[in-house]
Structure formats: C-alpha cells, structure tokens
C-alpha cells in the first residue's frame, strides 16, 4: 500500500501580534527579531480558543480540500505539545467533535518534529492495515506555555494548526504518488537544551518553555540535513528531482543554512516563518496548506518535509504529491 495525500488545510487564529507590539513589553526590537529569525509577526489564539478548536478548523479545511467527510476517517493523529487536557488525547476530543465513533485516535509528542513523526506513524499504520484513511494534524497553542517576560523565547513562537488527509491506496493504483520515505531520529541527551520546566508528574503545572537557543541552532542544520539526505538515499531520488522543500519554520537562518548545505534553489523552499513564527508541530502542515492553496504544490510534485525540535527529535518525509 501507499499512503497518498488527498488534501491539506490550515487554520490561524485571528489575532496578529507584531514584533513592535512585543517590544512594548520586553526589551527587544523589530530589527533584532527580523535579523536573527526572519519573524515579522505571529498569531495568538483567543483566550477561549484551544488546541482542539484550532485542530478542528484545520481538519475541516483538509477534509474539504480532499472532498471527503469525517466518516471517511478511521485514524486521527494529533501532534501537539499543548493539548487541551493532560488526558485524554486531543485526538479523541477531536474525534468526538467530528462525530467519529470508529477507528483509532492518538496524540504524538515530538514537539516541533511532531507532524513529521505523525506522517511517518500514519504511513506505518496504513501500510499495516491499522486504518484506511488518516487525518494527521499538527496543532499548537504555544502561547500558553511561553514566559512572556523572557525575550529569548517569547518572540519566537506562535499558534496555529495544519492538517493532512492520507489514504491507503494499493501501490499499483497510486501512480507513483504517496509517502516514499521517512527518516526519524531522537537523541534525549539534548533534552535540557529545549524543554518546558513543568509537568503533571513534577510541578503539577504546564510549565514554560526554556531554551538554549544558540545550542539548538548549532545542532539544527547538521541534524536536518542528515535526515533529508537519508530520505533521498532511501527513495533513490536526489535533490535535483525535488519540486518543493517544506521545512520546519523556526528560524529563517536555519532554513537558509539547510538550503545552502543541500544545494537547494531558494525558489523551491516554502517559507512562512515571517508571518507565522515557530508554530511547533503546526509549522510544516501550515506551510504545506499555504503552498497547496496558492497553487505552488501540485499533484505529481516531489515534496520534502523536515523538522527538528525538543528532545532533540528530528525527521524528514519525502512525498510524491
Ligand atoms: O524548533 C526548534 C526550536 N528552536 C529553534 O530552532 C531555535 C534555534 N535558535 C535560534 O533560532 C537562535 O539561536 C535565536 C533566534 C534563539 C537567537 O539567535 P542568536 O543569533 O543565536 O542569538 P544569541 O542567543 O546568541 O543572543 C545574542 C544576543 C544576546 O545578548 P548578548 O549576550 O550578546 O549581550 C541575547 O541576550 O541577543 C540577545 N537577545 C535578544 N536581544 C533582543 C536574545 N533574545 C533577544 C531579543 N531581543 N528577543
């Protein structure tokens, strides 16, 4: 079987927070943020808007793009670090909202790499007959776990959700389309370079993001390039065959560094970090839904997804659209 992409969709909360607005509350500037990260603004969820609310809107957009209904879905995976509740999984809350009473629903916790982990997990489930049609979602309200007094983290993140519908199709009918290769990695040695200082079993609170930004940056380009090259090697394709590179949107300088290392022409790289900032697990599917929505990514295109984040976790997926 092949896991073929049938549709994608995204949702961003209405409220836009600019760099200048942040500079009113912490010691930072639009110039510093743009120079060091490429971020101009980010979205922040309304007080009563939760991760599942965002996920639901993205899921409906993806189903509509796929021409499918909720009842077609028998596997829901939400990649999130900011679930509505400690349990049950956000995916089960979404399943209930969507009126789905069959199939499987689970969350994945791989922070910014969560969506790529989700695609690889759904691909494995579909290939092993554990479902026929999957909704893979990255959804975050990262604003809830930011220390808004800490300028080294609060300027970097945003809220949002993106979703993808993957359907199991017999290889003979897939016309070469579908998920072609996945590379996933983790190395917990780096856990304290990017983490949250709380949790149910320690402080009993959700905690706030803590990051040694320079340390994360130092590892990012090498780790990402490694899994991207691995996914190319596994599939037999090369960077010259690629139509679109859809990277995790953490920092424009990391995206450019990876592009340079892989010899990727800049016009093949989808960039949203300027307007979305780092939306963690939502960043890749949001970028995908933008590039599909405006007609850049088309059926038959070869598309590479990649992400790296807390853990560290990192991964890449190569997909024939
Ligand atoms: O998905 C993975 C998630 N995270 C990432 O990918 C983040 C990876 N890291 C980064 O993107 C970058 O390391 C940052 C954007 C976080 C920081 O950029 P940098 O070029 O590595 O800066 P830095 O941490 O070396 O800080 C340079 C200076 C410091 O001042 P001193 O010590 O040189 O006097 C910081 O205190 O910039 C200062 N600084 C700020 N200044 C104005 C840190 N944050 C800010 C700020 N505004 N918001």
Task: Explain the overall architecture.
The mean pLDDT is 98. The protein has 10 helices and 13 strands. It has 2 domains: 172 residues, Peroxisomal Thiolase, Chain A, domain 1 (3-Layer(aba) Sandwich); 143 residues, Peroxisomal Thiolase, Chain A, domain 1 (3-Layer(aba) Sandwich), CATH 3.40.47.10. It is an alpha/beta fold. Helices cover 32% and strands 25% of the residues. The two termini are 15 Å apart. The strands form 4 sheets. Strands 1-7-6-4-5 form a 5-stranded mixed sheet, with helices on both faces. It has a 4-stranded mixed sheet with strand order 8-13-12-11, sandwiched between helices.
Q: What share of residues are in beta strands?
A: 25-35%
Report the order of strands and helices. EEHHEHEHEHEHEEEEHEHHHEE
Low-pLDDT stretches: none
Structural class: alpha/beta
Give the overall average pLDDT: 98
CATH domain topology of the largest domain: Peroxisomal Thiolase, Chain A, domain 1
Q: Can you tell me the CATH class of the largest domain?
A: Alpha Beta
Q: What is the gyration radius calculated from CA atoms?
A: 18 Å
Total number of β-strand segments?
13
Write the layout of secondary structure elements.
Layout: E1 2-11, E2 15-18, H1 19-22, H2 30-37, E3 41-44, H3 51-66, E4 75-79, H4 90-97, E5 104-108, H5 114-127, E6 133-140, H6 151-154, E7 160-169, E8 178-186, E9 194-196, E10 209-211, H7 213-235, E11 244-247, H8 252-261, H9 273-276, H10 283-293, E12 302-309, E13 313-320
Parallel strand pairs: 4-5, 4-6, 11-12
Antiparallel strand pairs: 1-7, 2-3, 6-7, 8-13, 9-10, 12-13
The chain binds oxa(dethia)-CoA.
């Amino acid at each position: 079987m092949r896991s073929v992409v049938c549709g994608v969709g995204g949702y961003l909360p209405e409220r836009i927070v600019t760099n200048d607005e942040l500079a009113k509350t912490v010691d930072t500037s639009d110039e510093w943020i743009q120079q060091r990260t490429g971020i101009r603004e980010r979205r922040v969820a309304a007080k009563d808007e939760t991760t599942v609310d965002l996920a639901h809107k993205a899921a409906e957009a993806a189903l509509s793009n796929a021409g499918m209904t909720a009842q077609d879905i028998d596997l829901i995976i939400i990649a999130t670090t900011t679930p509505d509740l400690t349990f049950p999984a956000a995916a089960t809350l979404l399943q209930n909202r969507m009126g789905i009473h069959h199939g499987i629903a689970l969350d994945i916790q791989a922070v910014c790499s969560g969506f790529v982990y989700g695609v690889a997990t759904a691909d494995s489930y579909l290939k092993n007959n554990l479902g026929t049609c999957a909704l893979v979602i990255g959804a975050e309200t990262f604003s809830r776990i930011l220390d808004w007094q800490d300028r080294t983290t609060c300027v970097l993140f945003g809220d949002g959700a993106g979703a993808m519908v993957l359907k199991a199709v017999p290889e003979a009918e897939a016309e070469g389309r579908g998920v072609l290769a996945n590379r996933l990695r983790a190395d917990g040695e780096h856990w304290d370079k990017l983490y949250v200082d709380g949790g149910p079993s320690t402080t009993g609170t959700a905690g706030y993001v803590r990051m040694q930004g320079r340390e994360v940056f130092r590892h990012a380009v090498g780790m990402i390039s490694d899994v991207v090259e691995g996914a190319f090697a596994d599939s037999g394709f090369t960077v010259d065959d690629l139509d679109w590179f859809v990277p995790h949107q953490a920092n424009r300088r990391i995206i450019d560094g990876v592009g340079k290392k892989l010899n990727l022409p800049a016009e093949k790289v989808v960039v949203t970090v300027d307007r979305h900032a780092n939306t963690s697990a939502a960043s890749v599917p949001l970028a995908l839904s933008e590039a599909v929505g405006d007609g850049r990514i088309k059926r038959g295109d070869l598309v590479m997804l990649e992400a790296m984040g807390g853990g560290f976790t990192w991964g890449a997926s190569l997909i024939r659209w």
